[in-house]
C-alpha cells in the first residue's frame, strides 16, 4: 500500500511547514491521477502520535481479510440519536397516509386505546364483528419481538440470514462455507439441511431465495453467482458466469426477479450485472457507479425498476425498458448521504426505498423526488472528505454532522445505530403484521434497532449480541425476527418472539 504519516500538527522540516489540511490536498493531487477511484485510495487519521495514513486498497466494503476487524468496537461507540428528528418532509408525504391507513391510525379511531378497541369489538361495533386487517396490524405493531427463544452457535462469522418470501424457510450463510436451511413452518425453527457452498473466496457475502424458495443464490469473491436447489433431498449446484473484466471480483449484493428468471447483482467494479437463467448467460452489464456497488434491489413485483447503492454515496434508479449497455443512463439520482451506502431496501411499491450508510444514518427516499446536480456535487465532495475507514476505526466526531447537504431530497433521516466493520443491512418491517410502520437494522454495537418510520424515534433496541449484527430478518407474517451476528469465536442466530410488553 501507499502510505504517508505525519504528526497531528502537520509536517515541519527546515523552512517548510505544512498543515494537515494542506498535506491532504497535496497527497490527493499527487496520487489521485494514477488511481482509478474505485475505492483505491483513502486518507485516514491514525491514533496516538500518528496523524495521517494514505491507504491504497481495492475495496473498502467487505474486505477479504479477517485481520481488518473483529466486530467488537461496539462497547466503545454509542451511536447518537436525534432527540427531535426533523419530520417536516414526512409529515406531508404520501407514505404517512399509507402507513396510517395500513394501521387504522387515521382519524378519530386512530386515537383509541387497545382497551377501547376491545370494548368496541365486544359490543359488536367493529366491521363484521371483528377487527379489520388494519386494526390487527395496529395492535401487532405495539408488541414487538423482545424475547430470545432460540439460539444456534457457530464457530465462525455469520454474514447473512433471511426468511423466504412465505416465511416457511430461513437460511443463514456462514464463513465456514456452509449454508444452513431451517424449517420455520408452523412455528418451527429446526435445522433442515446444510449445504456446502462452492467456489467461496473468504466468505459468502450475500444470499437470497428465489421467489418460490426452490433455490438459494449466493455470492462471494468469485466470478460466479451460484444457484443451489434446496427443494427435496437432492442438491444441484449451478455456477452463473458473470464474465467480469476485473481480476479480483466480488458480487456484494444479490436480488432475484419476481419470476425468478433474472438475477441482479452489484459488484466491486462499480457495475450492475443481470443474468438470465433461461438463456444461461449474462444479458446486461452496466457501468453504474464510481465505486463498489454494495446494494441492489428490484423496486416492485414488475422487476422493471432497479435500485443501486454504492460507496460513492449515491442511490440510482434504473429502468430496464430504456437501459442500454453502451449508454447507461439512470432515471435519476438520490443524493444526501455523506459516505458509502451499505444496503438498500424497497418498500415494494416502486416509490419508496431506504438506504443504510457509513455516515451512520438511514435515509428514506421517494423516487419521484430526484436530487439536482447540486446534490450530486455536495455528496461527492462529502465522500472525498471522509478520511477514516469504517472497517477498523471508530467513528470520528466530525463524521457525525447532522445538517442536510445541499440538494438532499430524502424524505426522512434516522440516527441511532452504528454502521462499522461490514455492510450492515436495514429493512422495512412486514406489511402484513405491521403495515410497514417500522424500519429495523443491525448495529455495530451488537443491537437490533427499530425505528418508527413516521417519527424517526427509536421504539426498541434489542441487546442480545456481544458483537456486530450484520443482518436481521423479520418473518413476513409472524411477529418474530432472526438476527445474525459476528465475533471471533461464536456467532448467535437469535429468534425473538413477542412477549406481553408494549412499546407504548
Description:
With 504 residues, this protein is mainly β. The chain has 3 domains: 11-57, no CATH class; 74-93 and 141-497, YVTN repeat-like/Quinoprotein amine dehydrogenase (Methylamine Dehydrogenase, Chain H), CATH 2.130.10.10; 104-136, no CATH class. It is 11% helix and 34% strand. It contains 6 helices and 32 strands. The strands form 9 sheets. A 4-stranded antiparallel β-sheet has the order 5-32-31-30, with no helix packed on it. It has a 4-stranded antiparallel β-sheet with strand order 6-7-8-9, with no helix packed on it. It has a 4-stranded antiparallel β-sheet with strand order 10-11-12-13, with no helix packed on it. A hairpin with a 6-residue loop joins β3 (42-45) and β4. The longest helix is centred in the N-terminal third of the chain and has 12 residues, at 20-31. One of its GO terms (cellular component) is Cul4-RING E3 ubiquitin ligase complex. Interacts with DDB1 and CUL4A. Residues 63-87 are annotated as: Disordered. Belongs to the WD repeat LEC14B family.
Q: Per DSSP, what share of the residues sits in E-state strands of 2 or more residues?
A: 25-35%
Query: What is the CATH fold-level name of the largest domain?
Result: Methylamine Dehydrogenase, Chain H
Q: Based on Cα principal axes, name the global outline.
A: globular
Total number of β-strand segments? 32
Largest sheet: 4 strands, antiparallel
The secondary structure category is mainly beta
**What is the helix content?**
10-25%
Tell me the radius of gyration.
23 Å
The low-confidence runs, each spanning 5 or more residues with pLDDT under 50, are: 1-17, 28-40, 42-57
Organism: Cyprinus carpio carpio
Region (Disordered): 63-87
Function: May function as a substrate receptor for CUL4-DDB1 E3 ubiquitin-protein ligase complex.
Pathway: Protein modification; protein ubiquitination
Amino acid at each position: 500500500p501507499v502510505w504517508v504519516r505525519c504528526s497531528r500538527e502537520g509536517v515541519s522540516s527546515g523552512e517548510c511547514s505544512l498543515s494537515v489540511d494542506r498535506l491532504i490536498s497535496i497527497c490527493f493531487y499527487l496520487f489521485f491521477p494514477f488511481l482509478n477511484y474505485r475505492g483505491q485510495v483513502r486518507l485516514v487519521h491514525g491514533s496516538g502520535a500518528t496523524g495521517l495514513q494514505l491507504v491504497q486498497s481495492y475495496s473498502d466494503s467487505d474486505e477479504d481479510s479477517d485481520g481488518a476487524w473483529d466486530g467488537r468496537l461496539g462497547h466503545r461507540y454509542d451511536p447518537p440519536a436525534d432527540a427531535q428528528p426533523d419530520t417536516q418532509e414526512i409529515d406531508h408525504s404520501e407514505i404517512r397516509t399509507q402507513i396510517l391507513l395500513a394501521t387504522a391510525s387515521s382519524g378519530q379511531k386512530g386515537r383509541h386505546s387497545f382497551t377501547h378497541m376491545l370494548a368496541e369489538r365486544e359490543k359488536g361495533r367493529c366491521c363484521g364483528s371483528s377487527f379489520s386487517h388494519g386494526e390487527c396490524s395496529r395492535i401487532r405493531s405495539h408488541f414487538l419481538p423482545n424475547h430470545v427463544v432460540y439460539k444456534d452457535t457457530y464457530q465462525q462469522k455469520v454474514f447473512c440470514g433471511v426468511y423466504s418470501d412465505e416465511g416457511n424457510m430461513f437460511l443463514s450463510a456462514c464463513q465456514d462455507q456452509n449454508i444452513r436451511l431451517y424449517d420455520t413452518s408452523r412455528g418451527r425453527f429446526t435445522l433442515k439441511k446444510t449445504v456446502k457452498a462452492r467456489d467461496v473466496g473468504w466468505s459468502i457475502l450475500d444470499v437470497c431465495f428465489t421467489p418460490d424458495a426452490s433455490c438459494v443464490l449466493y455470492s462471494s469473491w468469485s466470478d460466479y453467482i451460484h444457484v443451489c436447489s434446496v427443494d427435496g433431498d437432492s442438491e444441484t449446484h449451478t455456477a452463473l458466469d458473470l464474465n467480469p473484466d476485473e481480476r479480483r471480483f466480488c458480487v456484494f449484493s444479490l436480488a432475484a426477479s419476481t419470476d425468478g428468471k433474472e438475477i441482479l447483482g452489484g459488484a466491486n467494479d462499480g457495475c450492475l450485472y443481470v443474468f438470465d437463467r433461461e438463456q444461461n448467460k449474462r444479458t446486461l452489464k452496466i457501468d453504474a457507479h464510481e465505486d463498489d456497488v454494495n446494494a441492489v434491489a428490484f423496486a416492485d413485483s414488475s422487476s422493471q425498476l432497479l435500485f443501486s447503492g454504492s460507496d460513492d454515496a449515491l442511490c440510482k434508479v434504473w429502468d430496464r425498458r430504456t437501459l442500454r449497455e453502451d449508454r447507461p443512463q439512470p432515471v435519476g439520482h438520490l443524493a444526501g448521504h455523506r459516505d458509502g451506502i451499505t444496503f438498500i431496501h424497497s418498500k415494494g411499491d416502486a416509490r419508496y426505498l431506504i438506504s443504510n450508510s457509513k455516515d451512520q444514518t438511514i435515509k428514506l427516499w421517494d423516487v419521484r423526488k430526484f436530487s439536482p446536480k447540486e446534490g450530486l456535487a455536495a455528496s461527492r465532495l462529502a465522500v472525498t472528505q471522509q478520511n477514516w475507514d469504517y472497517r477498523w476505526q471508530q467513528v470520528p466526531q466530525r463524521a457525525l454532522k447532522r445538517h442536510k447537504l445541499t440538494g438532499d431530497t430524502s424524505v426522512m433521516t434516522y440516527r441511532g445505530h452504528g454502521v462499522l466493520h461490514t455492510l450492515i443491512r436495514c429493512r422495512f418491517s412486514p406489511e402484513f403484521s405491521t403495515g410497514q410502520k417500522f424500519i429495523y437494522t443491525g448495529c455495530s454495537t451488537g443491537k437490533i434497532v427499530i425505528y418508527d418510520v413516521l417519527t424517526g424515534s427509536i421504539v426498541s433496541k434489542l441487546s442480545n449480541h456481544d458483537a456486530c449484527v450484520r443482518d436481521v430478518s423479520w418473518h413476513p407474517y409472524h411477529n418474530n425476527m432472526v438476527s445474525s451476528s459476528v465475533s471471533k469465536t461464536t456467532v448467535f442466530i437469535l429468534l425473538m418472539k413477542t412477549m406481553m410488553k408494549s412499546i407504548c
